[in-house]
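Tip: read the tokens left to right.
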């Protein structure tokens, strides 16, 4: 179905050239037919007799219509050429012309009035004013000129009744179809929105689970190792036990601080309350503190840096920190008595290598933590690989292209 033309800045409706050509053709054909129908009786080939008295008849020739009457008859159809550009004006001119030439109303004139009224309601920028004008015109024509309707043969009565009914049915069918299509599009949009919301919620849950895993697993693992060491030396070396318990306390405080930071991001307090409990997420500058805690837990760690370090965006720095944290946590949990080495190689890309010489499998198949690291690194175009070393032990290697870091 064609879209309704839009009114221009001057109040006229902007129509395409083909539509205007069609309107002009309809107006010219209707005007020629209307004027011809008015002139035709004056050119009747046979005489017309009127009885004037008892002595016979008088020959009468029908008078030709005046110029003003022909102009009015022409104006009952000619404005159809502008029924889209100036719909209200076209209807007003046609209706006034019909009232002026009401004695010469034909089927063509009747159709022109209906088409002009339809165009005024459909195309006018002032739709309610057009509706009011059409209604007022109908009342005026009905009250003042009861003979404006052209005579129609009885055989066409059924056609004149059924045609409008069919037209109304077609319009209602189209409206119902458009309403159904709109409802279906709305349902599809709602379903798509719900699906996107579910995906976003699932992604956020996975991110939160990864953060909680990184924070809790590492610090709790350190606390477990330190608490076990304190228990073993408590009777024979209270000083070492106290040192181990202090390390447990420090790890617990670190875990609580990171958990408060994470929970604060999930549910920030109103009006900025509690902001002092939040602290920035860790980055590579926190590696020395991380390695210190791990070393205090009983895992000797060698830390090496090659190349020229450069600052990273917070997200990339947090990802690199989590890679080292997860790798050292796995060494603590699975490698047994071992030594670990952390190496950062700065170049066109940052290569993080964490290895150990333990006897256990400190990585195994990619678990939740390593899968989370793989997802984190993929954001920055990086990748991760973990496996056993030929000389024994385990190695995790992560590569993060620095030019892809946002």
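Filled-in amino acids:
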């Amino acid at each position: 179905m064609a879209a309704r033309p839009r009114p221009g800045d001057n109040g006229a409706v902007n129509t395409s050239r083909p539509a205007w050509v069609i309107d002009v053709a309809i107006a010219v054909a209707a005007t020629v037919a209307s004027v011809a129908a008015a002139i035709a009786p004056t050119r009747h080939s046979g005489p017309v007799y009127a009885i004037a008295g008892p002595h016979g008849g008088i020959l009468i020739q029908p008078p030709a219509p005046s110029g003003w009457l022909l102009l009015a008859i022409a104006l009952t159809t000619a404005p159809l050429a502008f029924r889209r550009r100036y719909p209200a004006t076209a209807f007003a001119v046609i209706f006034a012309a019909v009232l002026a030439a009401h004695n010469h109303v034909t089927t063509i004139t009747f159709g022109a009035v209906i088409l002009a009224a339809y165009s005024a309601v459909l195309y006018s920028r002032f739709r309610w004013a057009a509706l009011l004008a059409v209604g007022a015109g109908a009342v005026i024509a009905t009250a003042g000129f009861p003979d404006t309707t052209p005579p129609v043969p009885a055989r066409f009565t059924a056609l004149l009744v059924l045609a409008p009914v069919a037209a109304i049915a077609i319009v209602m069918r189209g409206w119902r179809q458009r309403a159904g299509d709109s409802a279906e599009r709305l349902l599809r949009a709602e379903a798509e929105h719900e699906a996107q919301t579910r995906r976003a919620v699932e992604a956020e849950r996975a991110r939160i689970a990864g953060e909680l895993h990184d924070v809790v697993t590492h610090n709790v693992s350190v606390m477990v190792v330190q608490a076990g060491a304190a228990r073993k030396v408590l009777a024979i070396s209270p000083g070492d036990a106290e040192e181990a318990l202090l390390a447990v306390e420090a790890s617990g405080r670190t875990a609580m601080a990171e958990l408060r930071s994470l929970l604060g991001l999930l549910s920030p307090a109103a009006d900025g309350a509690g902001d002092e409990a939040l602290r920035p997420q860790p980055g590579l500058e926190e590696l020395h503190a991380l390695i210190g805690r791990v070393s205090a837990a009983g895992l000797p760690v060698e830390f090496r840096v090659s190349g020229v370090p450069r600052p990273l965006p917070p997200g990339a720095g947090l990802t690199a920190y989590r890679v080292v944290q997860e790798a050292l946590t796995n060494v603590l949990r699975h490698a047994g008595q071992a030594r670990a080495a952390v190496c950062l190689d700065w170049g066109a890309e940052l290569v993080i290598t964490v290895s150990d010489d333990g006897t256990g499998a400190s990585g195994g198949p990619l678990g939740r933590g390593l899968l989370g690291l793989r997802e984190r690194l993929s954001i920055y175009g990086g990748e991760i690989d973990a496996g056993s070393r030929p000389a024994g032990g385990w190695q995790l290697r992560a590569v993060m292209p620095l030019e892809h870091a946002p």
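The longest helix spans residues 157-233. Residues 6-11, 269-278 have pLDDT under 50 and may be disordered.
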